[in-house]
Amino acid sequence: MNSCQLWDLKMWALMGAVCLCHCVFGQLFETKMKGAQRLICSVPGSPGLPGKPGPVGTQGAEGNVGIPGRDGRDGRKGEKGEKGDTGLKGRVGPTGKIGERGDRGPAGKRGPTGENGVLGPPGPPGRKGERGLRGKRGPRGTAGICRCGSLVPKSAFSVGITSSYPTEYTPIKFNKVLFNEGGHYNPQTGKFICAYPGIYYFSYDITLANKHLAISLMHNGQHRIKTFDANTGNHDVASGSTVMYLNPEDEVWLEIFYRDQNGLFADPSWADSLFSGFLLYADTNYFDTLAEEYE
Q: Record's Pfam families (predicted)?
């Protein structure tokens, strides 16, 4: 054995002695502290048999009632059971509110025709319709008695007015009819409507007071002639006249053509404002063509 191995052996022996001393002194110290004898560095033995149960002790006092526990969770939904028998019919409940109106259903079959009702009062007259197409020529009539004087077309009028200062830009309604051959002047509208085509003469003589007068002779909405008379503080007379050709349904009237220049004055006791017109001669070509159509 060499020196190195000898040195290792001594070291191991020293370490074993140190461990033995440590174990002995530790056991002695522990025995002194607990006051019981115990084998030094003894190995524990195997556990012994269990002892007999001791006698039953006396019943203790009843404890206080504990706090109620929380409700448990709801159980799972069970399976749907079989349909039960129909119960007895209940009482009729109160009438509910009227619901909203539903969609209109399909039209039903037409019912039987009822009896005619009582004839109602006539309604107001409708608007004047458009002029229709010219009808077919009728059968030739029996020859009549020649009355040559009645074949001459006649048209003439002369009218006055009973109110002063008429409204501007509208036909002046001369409501005092002095003469109206053929009835071609309408006092409700203030217009002369041509019935026979031809050459006509028109004139007016207007008394004015307190205002100036701007008056015009109108032909189908167009100014034919215009006259303007200034008032000088006294009564004055404005006049005008013209000759023109008219076709059937042409309209002629007088009108104030400037605002606040409507000094037309009327006083039935001593002054008149007049509007007149008449047919000079008819259009012979028109009547010849009309006579050929009737033949």
A: C1q, Collagen
